[in-house]
């Protein structure tokens, strides 16, 4: 074996590490400088893939940035490509510019335009309507799309101007209440103690039904006075008859007959007074008692006004001559009862409240500023807050007084027959129908737009889908009428059959206002 040679360590030349570090720093600085130079000259924009891949990129010059359509087709930049029609100015009668009611040839419909089937001027006069400024010039502009798919790409949906029933209404809060003429608050006619109670809360009663009996000492006293008056009357009457018979024979002096007749008259007055006292308490006193036997009169008088069938139900301690019945004066339902047997009552305490649930009033509280539009016999629709079906009726009475606290006018409504029970003190919302139009010209609510001085819709050109025709929408001033949750009536500005931008039409509004501002706003030129 040969002997191994010793390894000799080779060390780098002195100063090598500083040289490498300096070279790396120089390369980094050079790269940053190149990046800065490139960014400065490209405005810090990344190159397109076509430039990176070395492919040519077509340059687009045919585009109108202001109107967002090809410049070669823009009708706003070059109006001669699609001249605007004649302008007829502002219609003072209907309150719109270029009125299609007077100039139906402006309507964007195929065939013969259809005018509204009702008097729109009369409808305009029903209520104050929002007005348009005659100097507003937004209607002179047109909004153009590049192609027929443009509105859909922008999220715009269209709808057709149509006819449907609409109503002009006044809205007012209201409440159902019992007819005050059919509500009775019953109390005892005399002070005393409640002896028997036959009816309670919620019971239905007929007119004349017995509700309760009150034991009052005054009743017994009046019955005693009547019985005494009957006895005296019969005695005085028999005395006069006897004296007349013997007086004719000259047996007794004429003076005695005159005195007897005077006493008879006093007895008759006393009887009538005693009878009236019981009748004032509601008792029905028979005329036969004047001639009936006193014993028979006393028996009938003791339980006067109490049916014989109920006498057996009276407790033993209640069988007195002091009983006064409390009866229902009308048919209805007991809606309040505050009485129990043995309770001491007086004439000021209400024992029963009786009401007719089939006879309710609707009272609406109309705002003072709306009061001048309300008149008798106007139809009314009322939606109770309890979720029940809508009620119908007609205005029957209008208060001549404004409530000084709420500044509202009370309007009473006579309700039509309903097939469900109604409840007193039910609140809800009433609508007084001022005008009902079965053929109102309407558009969706989303189609109507408003500036500070005008109301308008965007009407699609009738030649929108024809080849070579511009794809545009007209700005049309309108007058607003009745409205509901989905539709708005247009009393002027459009005709049935025209197509308007609906959902998403705010895109057109934004472009319209943008164009107006770009043109120096010429809204009121």
UniProtKB/TrEMBL annotation:
InterPro entries: Beta-barrel_RND_2, BSH_CzcB-like, CzcB_C, MFP_Cation_Efflux. Keywords: Transport. GO terms for cellular component: outer membrane-bounded periplasmic space. Residues 182-356 form the CzcB-like barrel-sandwich hybrid domain. GO terms for biological process: copper ion export; plasma membrane copper ion transport. Residues 441-507 form the CzcB-like C-terminal circularly permuted SH3-like domain. Signal peptide: none annotated. GO terms for molecular function: transition metal ion binding. Residues 360-424 form the CusB-like beta-barrel domain. SUPFAM superfamilies: HlyD-like secretion proteins (SSF111369). This is HlyD family efflux transporter periplasmic adaptor subunit.
């Amino acid at each position: 074996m040969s002997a191994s040679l010793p390894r000799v360590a080779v060390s780098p030349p002195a100063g090598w590490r500083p040289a490498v570090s300096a070279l790396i720093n120089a390369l980094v600085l050079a790269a940053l400088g190149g990046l800065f130079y490139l960014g400065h000259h490209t405005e810090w924009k990344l190159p397109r893939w076509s430039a990176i891949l070395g492919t040519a990129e077509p340059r687009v010059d045919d585009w109108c940035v202001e109107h967002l359509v090809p410049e070669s087709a823009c009708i706003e930049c070059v109006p001669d490509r699609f001249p605007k029609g004649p302008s007829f100015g502002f219609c003072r009668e209907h309150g719109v510019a270029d009125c299609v009611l007077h100039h139906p040839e402006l309507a964007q419909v195929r065939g013969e335009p259809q005018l509204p089937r009702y008097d729109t001027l009369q409808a305009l006069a029903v209520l104050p309507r929002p007005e348009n400024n005659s100097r507003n010039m937004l209607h002179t502009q047109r909004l153009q799309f590049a192609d027929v798919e443009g509105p859909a790409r922008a999220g715009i949906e269209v709808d057709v101007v149509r006819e449907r029933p609409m109503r002009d209404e006044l809205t007012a809060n209201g409440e159902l209440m019992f007819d005050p003429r059919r509500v009775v608050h019953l109390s005892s006619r005399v002070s005393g103690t409640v002896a028997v109670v036959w009816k309670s809360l919620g019971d239905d009663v007929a007119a004349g039904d017995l509700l309760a009996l009150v034991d009052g000492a005054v009743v017994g006293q009046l019955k005693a006075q009547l019985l005494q008056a009957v006895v005296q009357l019969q005695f005085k009457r028999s005395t006069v008859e006897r004296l007349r018979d013997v007086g004719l024979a000259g047996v007794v002096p004429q003076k005695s007959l005159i005195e007897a007749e005077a006493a008879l008259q006093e007895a008759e007055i006393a009887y009538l007074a005693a009878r009236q006292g019981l009748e004032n308490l509601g008792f029905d006193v028979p005329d036969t008692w004047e001639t009936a036997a006193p014993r028979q009169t006393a028996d009938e008088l003791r339980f006067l006004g109490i049916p014989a069938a109920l006498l057996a139900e009276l407790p033993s301690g209640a069988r007195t001559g002091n009983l006064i019945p409390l009866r229902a004066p009308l048919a209805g339902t007991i809606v309040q009862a505050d009485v129990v047997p043995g309770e001491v009552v007086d004439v000021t305490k209400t024992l029963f409240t009786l009401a007719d649930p089939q006879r309710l009033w609707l009272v609406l509280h109309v705002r003072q500023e709306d009061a001048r539009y309300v008149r008798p016999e106007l139809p009314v629709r009322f939606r109770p807050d309890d979720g029940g079906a809508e009620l119908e009726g007609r205005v029957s009475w209008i208060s001549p007084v404004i409530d000084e606290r709420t500044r509202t006018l009370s309007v009473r409504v006579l309700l039509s027959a309903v097939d469900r029970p109604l409840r007193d003190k039910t609140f809800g919302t009433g609508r007084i129908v001022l005008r009902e139009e079965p053929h109102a010209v309407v558009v969706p609510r989303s189609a109507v737009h408003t500036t500070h001085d005008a109301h308008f819709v965007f009407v699609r050109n009738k030649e929108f889908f024809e080849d070579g025709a511009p794809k545009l929408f007209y700005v049309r001033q309108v007058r607003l009428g009745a409205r509901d949750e989905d539709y708005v009536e247009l009393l002027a500005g459009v005709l049935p059959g025209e197509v308007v931008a609906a959902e998403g039409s705010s895109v057109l509004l934004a472009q319209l206002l943008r164009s107006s501002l770009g043109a120096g706003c010429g809204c009121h030129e």
